[in-house]
Amino acid sequence: MKDKIRIASGQGFWGDLIDAPYTQVTAGQVDYLVMDYLAEVTMSILQKQKNKNPKLGYARDIPELMDRILPICKEKNIKVITNGGGVNPEACAEAVIDVARKHKISNLKIAVVLGDNILDRIDNVITNGCQLNNMETGEPVSIVKDKLLSANVYFGAMPIVEALKMGADIVITGRTTDTGLTLAPMIYEFGWSKNDYNLLSAGTVAGHILECGGQASGGNLLADWRSVPDIENIGFPIAEAYPDGNIIITKHQSLGGKVTIETVSEQLVYEIGDPKNYITPDCVADFTSIELEEVGKDRIRVYGVKGNPETEFYKVSCSYSSGYSAVGTLTYSWPDALSKAKQADQILRKRLEYLNLSFDEIRTEFVGYNSCHGPLATKLDEDRINEVMLRIAVRGSDYYSIERFGKEIAPLILTGPPSVTGFAGGRPKPADVVAYWPALIPKKLVEPKVEIITL
User: Fold this and answer.
1) Alpha-carbon dihedral of residues 200, 205, 206, 208, nearest 10 degrees?
2) C-alpha pair distances (Å), 281 with each of 177, 284, 314, 435
3) CA angle at residue 417 from 414 to 423, to 5 degrees?
4) Residue 105: strand, helix, or coil
5) d(Cα 77, Cα 168) in Å, to the nearest integer?
6) Which of 118, 126, 146, 439 gives 132 a disulfide partner, CB atoms 3.0 to 4.6 angstroms apart?
7) How would you classify the pairing of strands 148-153 and 109-114?
8) How does residue 373 score in pLDDT terms, banded at 50, 70 and 90?
9) DSSP code of 173?
């Protein structure tokens, strides 16, 4: 058993800093590089891509990235774990194999974790008594079954642990929890029992801190954000993990950013729901038990984490097509910029009403005034507002109504309030509204599968 391992965060989402994984494996010593590419909407995008081309459906940044880092990872014995396989981990693995062959790399094992994609098994799941009821409304998935774009089960750390036990150098998964990517190496290296829920919860907390990349090392920081040094060269966080469940969050000292109580705390409360019950497939972590201690520059110790047994369910992330949308903008200048924008909004809404158009929702924002805070926005002195952008959006199932909406924005330039510029948008995109359908499925109905490819 190793006395510690260093797990580096390389990506917080698909589209994160391209150079982050490279700097993580070159700026200092790490044992694992973990990269989180997936969000709920990402799965539907990837499924659409795979439907058009069976060789797609994964994060296409990965082959180019591996071309840069695979020789380095092989030389330094750094293992790579990513859920960037999306809905097509096999194709992603094939692309990485091509990169390995290009560099004449041998003795390489790539594992793919399969079984999370249940889109083609929905009828079978329903037949087995699981209606995939919406967790928010309670409705059965059957009411949107014909519109489904994706349906993926959130696996946890255990399939990755199995892959590591099989000797994998690279593990490519589909929809795996963000935290499972980081927890898995700890279970594997330290021999943690799947019933030791305090240790599993400690690893889960570490995974939560790493999952959003630079957000834990000074990015998107609310507390004293001006103080973050060299943020243009930000170093992503690293979890220095120990067998007893102690974790030190740090970063490479040669890189920018900072790791402090504040940066770690802000990430800890990001997207957690009930802090006493942070539910994952591996355990239920109690975030209220977390203790933090500064033990050096850019070194925050995370300890005291408590946890409880996992539930009997996996979460399922489904998405479905829910109609059309269109967005249009106009910008109004001083004087009375906000009043002009508000009147333009009322004019447009009345004209849409006269046309008897059908929408599920019409939403207006006044950018520069309330687009972030909505009804909580503070009332402003109009004499101090230089300009306001009117942004209005519609969505619905009637394509004609969405299309006609777009034709009513430009006329406001000459038939509405004065001092207007910045017209843009208004055109509908076919079936572009993707709605989210969260559900639960008994674990007994889904079986993860690990396959190893050896070069």
Assistant:
1) 130
2) 8, 8, 6, 24
3) 60
4) coil
5) 11
6) 439
7) unpaired
8) confident
9) E
Class of domain 323-432: alpha beta
> In this structure, what DSSP letter does residue 355 have?
T
How far apart CA 236 and CA 420 sit, in angstroms, is 43
With H, G, I as helix, E, B as strand and everything else as coil, classify residue 202: helix
Name the residue ranges covered by the structural domains of the chain: 5-318+439-454, 323-432
The pLDDT confidence band at residue 369, using thresholds 50, 70 and 90, is: confident
DSSP letters for 320-349: EE--EEEEEEEEEESSSHHHHHHHHHHHHH
390-426 tens-digit pLDDT = 999 999 999 999 999 999 999 999 999 999 999 988 8
CA distance 306 to 286: 6
Alpha carbon of residue 50 to chain centroid = 19
What does the pLDDT average to over 228-252?
98
DSSP, res 108: -
Residues 305 and 205: their CA atoms lie apart, in Å, by 8
What's the rounded Cα separation, in Å, for the pair 455 and 106? Answer: 5
Q: Which amino acid is at 343?
A: Q
DSSP element (H, E) containing 203: helix 197-210
In sequence order, what are the beta bridge partners of 33? Answer: 8, 80
Instruction: List CB contacts of 218: < 8 A, sequence separation 6 or more.
Output: 228, 229, 231, 234, 256, 257, 258, 259, 263
CA distances from 290 to 6, 247, 278, 279, 373 (A): 20, 11, 12, 15, 31
Per-residue pLDDT at 431: 60
Supply the pLDDT for residue 412.
96
Pairwise CA distance, residues 169 & 90, whole Å: 16
158 vs 448: CA distance, rounded Å: 9
pLDDT band at 430 (very low <50, low <70, confident <90, very high): low
pLDDT at 221 over 90: yes
